[in-house]
Design brief:
Keywords: Methyltransferase, S-adenosyl-L-methionine, Transferase. It contains 8 helices and 11 strands. By secondary structure, the protein is of the alpha/beta class. The longest helix has 13 residues. The relative contact order is 0.14.
Length: 254
């Protein structure tokens, strides 16, 4: 794990979750909180997070739903170590494996989970300039194809289990293509920054053996007003409940 001078201490959910993250490199933010808030999990269920980073999404889910058994896969050893450290600090039942999700450890290949969650890298190869920090680039730049993320999620799900992803809206086509033939009952929840603004993020949930038709929900608007007018937060009430109180996304209750 990095030295303490290379880390920051960050609070999530109004202080219910406290984690250490690299001062430079990939840092989890509201996307991880929204992902956790979208998972329709219940006490006693099992959850696998692909690409767990420092563990923020899993720990936020743990804070909202007691009694979960959590497992994380993380490619980068430094982030995997941070996730273990953060899990211990938050009293979470989170087991973290440092491994490539395309080559899961043998014990995980024998397991199935009620939920698989992931925030796959947002940027397709060649779509932008690479980040200078290796950890940030690994987290944001796609090296493992989207198809592999979805394939691994589908294989590790128990029958009727749910996969929940957060992704950039412009990658939605790639997500649906990867899910086709592997998972069903697709639900898409767009997130838009403000009213009359295009969605920039989507949460996508699909079910193993699901047969319901695709459902596209109305966008959730994150901020009040047409523009940001001051340094104060201007989140909508639902977003405040999710980000500050650990509440579920309305999507998680459907």
């Amino acid at each position: 794990m990095s030295s303490e001078t290379d880390l920051t201490t960050d609070d999530f959910l109004g202080g219910r979750v406290t984690v250490h993250q690299p001062r430079k490199g990939f840092r989890s933010g509201v996307d991880a909180v929204f992902l956790a808030a979208a998972v329709p999990a219940f006490a006693g269920q099992t959850v696998l997070e692909l690409g767990c980073g420092a563990g923020v999404a899993s720990l936020c889910l743990n804070a909202r739903v007691a009694g979960l058994r959590l497992t994380g896969i993380e490619l980068q050893a430094e982030y995997a170590a941070l996730a273990r450290h953060n899990a211990a600090g938050n009293g979470a039942d989170l087991t973290v494996h440092q491994a490539d999700l395309a080559m899961l450890p043998p014990e995980l290949r024998q397991m199935q989970f009620d939920h698989v969650i992931a925030n796959p890298p947002y940027y397709a190869p060649g779509s932008r300039h690479s980040a200078k920090d290796e950890g940030r680039e690994t987290a944001l730049g796609e090296s493992t194809p989207m198809d592999t993320w979805v394939e691994v999620a589908a294989k590790r799900l128990a029958p009727k289990g749910y996969a929940t992803f957060i992704q950039r809206t412009d990658r939605l086509g790639d997500m649906i293509s990867a899910i086709s033939g592997r998972l069903g009952s697709i639900q898409i929840q767009p997130l838009a920054p403000r009213a009359d603004r295009d969605s920039h993020l989507v949460i996508l949930r699909a079910r193993k053996n699901g047969r319901a038709p695709l459902r596209l929900h109305a966008p959730l608007i994150m901020h009040e007003g047409a523009v940001h007018l001051s340094d104060a937060d201007d989140y909508m009430a639902w977003a405040v409940d999710v980000l500050r109180n650990g509440g579920p996304l309305p999507f998680a209750l459907l």
